[in-house]
Design a protein that fits this description.
The protein has 295 residues and is α/β, with parallel strands linked by helices. Helix content is 51%, strand content 9%. The longest helix has 39 residues.
């Protein structure tokens, strides 16, 4: 990636904490609204590792987390779509591991009619995602209000004793991972993306995890390195187009975890825990394959 694009991505501001409403009752209701977080990036970028670390970090701080996989919990007709690519393009099943590669042929297959079909399917996914987020926010907000009204948490302690308790919904991939697979240079596609933006709820924090393609391929051998390079560029172009994603560069694993944690506390509007505040992370000046986050 060029230094100019790296600087542009790093300059995208982390979303501001939600503003406190005028009245105390409104402020209380706002504080109970679940936070929506998403993780995006090329296959092998380390999404699973970062998600698990963040969940442990938040639950230790008193938050209640819920994880959804975009493919399993949101995508419309996922089983039919998966079966189609296996039959039509001989895509291998399973998840690639070091020493056990899997030859995937699905999103890396480029045909004009598949591009058109993807636009239609992704729009259906966007509509379903909006519905899923609405149901989650309504249901979890109601649950939080009921607990607040009773003055007790599920563990039997008072809510005052768990000031940070709040629902955090974490998506393993989001609509952005589908949009990055479209021809972003096409003006009609860019208009389509703007339309999808109007439909899909914007996460409170949308992480974009960067990774060196060769290192990502070594950790999760499913797609050719050439496709991963193309996908990496596409994610960055999408982030610059939408300007709503928090870019996490290909740092050493420990530093990437800290960057993810610190970004969350900024968005949550909470003081950074002392342990996290004491850890400083320097921006990455160079991406080395052996230092990219582990999958």
């Amino acid at each position: 990636m060029s230094e100019t694009k790296q600087a542009e991505l790093s300059s995208i501001p982390i979303p501001r904490p939600m503003e406190a409403p005028g009245s105390a009752s409104e402020s209380g209701q706002q504080s109970l609204r679940p936070l929506i977080i998403s993780f995006s990036g090329v296959d092998g970028a380390g999404k699973s590792t970062q998600i698990e670390n963040l969940r442990q970090h938040l639950e230790a701080a008193g938050f209640r987390t819920r994880l959804l996989a975009f493919w399993d919990d949101v995508v419309v007709g996922c089983r039919f779509r998966e079966g189609f690519v296996h039959r039509a393009y001989k895509s291998e099943r399973g998840i690639g591991e070091p020493g056990k590669p899997v030859a995937r042929r699905d999103k890396n297959v480029r045909r004009w009619y598949l591009t058109l079909l993807r636009h239609l399917l992704y729009f259906a996914d966007a509509l379903n995602l909006a519905w899923v987020v609405f149901l989650l926010r309504y249901g979890l907000s109601s649950e939080s209000v009921e607990r607040a009204g009773s003055g007790r948490s599920d563990s039997g302690r008072s809510d005052a004793g768990r000031a940070h308790e709040r629902h955090v919904i974490i998506f393993d991939r989001y609509i952005y991972d589908e949009l990055a697979n479209l021809p972003l240079s096409n003006p009609l596609t860019r208009f389509y993306i703007k339309l999808v933006e109007l439909i899909v709820p914007r996460p409170d924090l949308a992480y974009l995890l960067d990774a060196d393609p060769e290192a990502a391929r070594a950790r999760k051998p499913e797609y050719p390195v050439g496709f991963l390079r193309h996908s990496r560029r596409a994610y960055k172009d999408l982030a610059l187009l939408m300007r709503c994603m928090t870019f996490i560069p290909a740092l050493p694993l420990v530093d990437a975890k800290r960057r993810v944690e610190q970004a969350f506390w900024l968005v949550a509007g909470r003081p950074v825990p002392v342990a996290a505040a004491a850890k400083t992370v320097e921006p990455a000046q160079e991406v080395r394959p052996d230092e990219a986050p582990a999958a």
